Amino acid sequence: MCLEISYKFGKNYHLKNKNEINKVFKNGKKKLMNDAIIFFNYSAAFKYAVGFKKHKFKAAEKNYIKRKIKEYLRLNKFYLKNFSCVIVILKYPLSFQSLYDSLNFLFYSGKSVI
Length: 114
Fold this sequence. Notes:
The chain has 114 residues and is of the alpha+beta class.
């Protein structure tokens, strides 16, 4: 009998409630990157939202960036800490690896960011 690991990344990981998003912006901390700003604070479970700078991206670019971020989080979901985070994309990433490196603090325990 083989134990299967599920890599599904359902809607329970999405941060949708406007009040929760406002709490992250007001009470949380932020981390500045070259391509993005990440607002975060502790919560009961990991949830995330992705936002964009206004009038900077086309719809296809927004969807592509969201898919790339979701896939990265899905593959690393077993290492996620209990954060609520809002990722605000400022400009199109030159390489997604730099964006992934900026998201690494959400996963690996080590130095506490908060």
